[in-house]
Amino acid sequence: MTPLADMIPTMSDPDLKALRLNALRLSASTTASLTQIASATDVIPLIDEEIARRAADKTATAVKKPRAPAKKKVVPASGHQTALPDSKAA
Fold it and tell me: Number of folded domains in the chain?
């Protein structure tokens, strides 16, 4: 395997997505070298396997998180309490 293929399991999900898009772009490129095209073509199935493995792990270990309790509603202060002078100002 290539060094890049060895790094795929340690990459984050956004990094895998970006790598896959770049590999697809390179494999379809007409200006890339033959080595780049071959490497990109080789790595795409490995990326797809890793993404599928992670998706299977997430569905197998998905735990429903309990919802937080609803916040109690606070009764607003009446208008006359807010008009009282500040005790520190006196």
Answer: 1
